[in-house]
Model the fold of this input.
Amino acid sequence: MNKKLLFAATFAMCSNFLTAQVLYSENFDNLTIGNLTTDFTGQTPGQGGLYGMSHTTIPYSAIQIKTEPNKGNVLYIDTDSYNGNVGRMVEKRDLDIVFNQRTQGNDLLKFQFDFYTGKDIPTDSPQIVEINIHSAKYFLGGFRFYGNEKILKGKRPQSTYNNGFMEKFIGKTYNTDLVLPANQWVTLAVTIDFTNAKIYFEIPHLGIVYQYDSLPFTFTDPTSTDEPNTNGTPVLLRIGQSYINTNDPISMYYMYDNFNFSAINTPPTPTVSVAEVLSNSFNLFPNPASNTINITNSDNYFVQNVKIYDTSGKLLKTQHFNNQKEVQLNIESLTNGIYLLHIHTDKGVAVKKVVKK
Done:
């Protein structure tokens, strides 16, 4: 089936029940085997309307369309022993044109693709792979893959300053790395919920769906630079690779297939609970503690109150706060022992264990 470009194509459902629109897809099967482009300045599009770029002079064969067994044609990008922080990128531009043609209500963007994890490499220097989605000005979401360790992490926006982002764990349990096997194709997906400021990372074959907070991007005013009226209309998909050890060059490559951008109206269901995500975002110190405990978090959750329970489930004390990110909890009146803190935030309740000494 030709999946080269499907602008505003829809699944065969009536409009009242429409849940997804394919805005852009590419499986590379209609492209010609060989170099993707003969221009690494990013000025002239190559095959399939994709742009190739490089920070340094490299052969055009570094970015190719190749044939893979059981996959058909794929996008191939190598690092092939080029010393230093040698970045090469492939971009798909003008995604805003198709995104703005989406059906009303389909305001979540989902990007799904196949990724080849590459061979085992005997080096401690990271082979960094980035798969990122950007608006005209801001980073919206994506993945980072450390090829030397085969660690995959999600990337969510952290601030609108300088495309700020934060790496997030997407392992089988919260706060653990997801390590992918070498020499294997995997399917990955990222979904951006602009309206509710959420981002989802999905690894279908492992049954993993993570939900994290994002930033409140809007589509209301594409010319505005004021916060929080931040235009988040997706414009660009960028795939970047770099190898950064100048003393230990290693021939390496990664491959990509089956790009699929869809506008959807329902997010995936997280397989890691919100409570678990919240709880692991909070830090308590000191712990054990005698008089006061400092409560902080890494994800900008705002604390409304903290309820202290003993191990039998009896509520002992409630301390209220004014939606603060960092708070101090007084436990001086408690007897020595183990207690559970129910930290009520604007996003839900986190549960943490503390020891009074």
